[in-house]
């Protein structure tokens, strides 16, 4: 878990002009390439149908999965996220609070019985893990090499940025995706993929993040797992076609929900978290409209959470709930 502290996060407005022009140039190159290809095909085939037009894209990522065994969550779907402990759910439970569509829970600490029970209760399960940071307390933590690790994460001194270009890191993440598939998660929520936006100590760039998301997305697709993009607003245009949803923290606080509206416009949900204590205004209305600082948040699946992402949650209709947490057993 890594709610970004003020000053972190993926902020287009903080990107240098040079980078902005780089992105614009790449986008332009892709459009020209796509037009050229389209013309070429058009000339060769005469009038063909345009059903493979998937909108804006960038070179590295495959198009939206044609694999219909991959879950495609709907815009506006209701959800809950609980990370510091596994949730406590009796295998014989007949309900869970809150009664929402989707649970985003830790991949490692939640037992198979919890995932199976959530499915029996009609819920979809998103399995959270950190894909871009080293955490010392995971079962596979010993497999990382010293050379894989960069600077500590701001606010999370135990965690270190990982080298997204490292084959060793990618192999470990492949295994994590295989674990998610084996546990029958419907989707994965790989965190900390925005090293480019932080002092990572490894020289990681946006392109490294795009390539890493490309790697994760194709592996996820091969395992019939949906995949979300955590924060990382600056790379949305490059990865959107291969990603099924966004998990966003604090776009109202940072006034950049508009960037994430790209997802809703592509009929993909934005699972949106705000931490009221961070902005010292705990009025639901501040986070649940789509004007003012929340401009662009129309259609977002908003939850108001404590900073540690425990069982407490509040929704835009004002209702609150607390999901029971259990002990970490592994
Ligand atoms: C998404 O669509 C809305 C409504 O048409 C528009 O205002 C907004 O600018 C779009 N977002 C992006 C990132 O293009």
From TrEMBL:
Residues 48-68 are annotated as: Disordered. The chain crosses the membrane at residues 21-43. The keyword Protease does not apply. Keywords: Membrane, Transmembrane, Transmembrane helix. Signal peptide: none annotated. It comes from the Eukaryota. Its EC number is 3.2.1.22. Gene3D superfamilies: Aldolase class I (3.20.20.70). Residues 78-312 form the Glycoside-hydrolase family GH114 TIM-barrel domain. The keyword Transmembrane applies. It catalyses: Hydrolysis of terminal, non-reducing alpha-D-galactose residues in alpha-D-galactosides, including galactose oligosaccharides, galactomannans and galactolipids. This is alpha-galactosidase.
């Amino acid at each position: 878990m890594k709610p970004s502290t003020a000053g972190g996060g993926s902020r287009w407005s903080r990107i240098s002009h040079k980078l902005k022009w780089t992105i614009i140039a790449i986008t332009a190159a892709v459009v020209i390439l796509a037009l050229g290809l389209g013309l070429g095909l058009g000339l060769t085939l005469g009038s063909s149908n345009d059903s493979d037009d998937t909108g804006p894209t960038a070179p590295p990522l495959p198009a939206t999965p044609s694999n219909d065994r991959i879950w495609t969550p709907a815009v506006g779907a209701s959800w809950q996220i609980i990370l510091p402990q596994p949730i406590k759910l009796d295998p014989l439970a007949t309900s869970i609070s809150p009664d929402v569509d989707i649970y985003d829970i830790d991949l490692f600490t939640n037992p198979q019985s919890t995932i199976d029970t959530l499915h029996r209760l009609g819920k979809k399960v998103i399995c959270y893990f950190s894909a871009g940071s080293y955490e010392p307390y995971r079962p596979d933590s010993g497999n990382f090499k010293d050379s894989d690790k960069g600077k500590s994460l701001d606010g999370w001194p135990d965690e270190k940025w990982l080298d997204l270009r490292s084959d060793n890191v990618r192999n470990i993440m492949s295994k994590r995706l295989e674990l998610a598939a084996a546990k029958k998660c419907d989707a994965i929520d790989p965190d900390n993929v925005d090293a480019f936006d932080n002092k990572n100590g490894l020289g990681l760039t946006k392109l490294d993040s795009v390539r890493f998301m490309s790697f994760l997305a194709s592996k996820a697709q091969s395992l019939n797992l949906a995949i979300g993009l955590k924060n990382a607003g600056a790379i949305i245009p490059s990865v959107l076609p291969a990603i099924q949803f966004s998990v966003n923290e604090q776009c109202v606080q940072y006034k950049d929900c508009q960037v994430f509206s790209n997802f809703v416009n592509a009929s993909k949900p934005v699972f949106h978290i705000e931490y009221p204590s961070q902005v010292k205004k705990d009025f639901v209305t501040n986070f649940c409209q789509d004007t003012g600082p929340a401009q662009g948040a129309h259609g977002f699946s908003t939850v108001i959470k404590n900073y540690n992402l425990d069982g407490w949650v509040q929704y835009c209709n004002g209702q609150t709930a607390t999901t029971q947490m259990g002990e970490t057993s592994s």
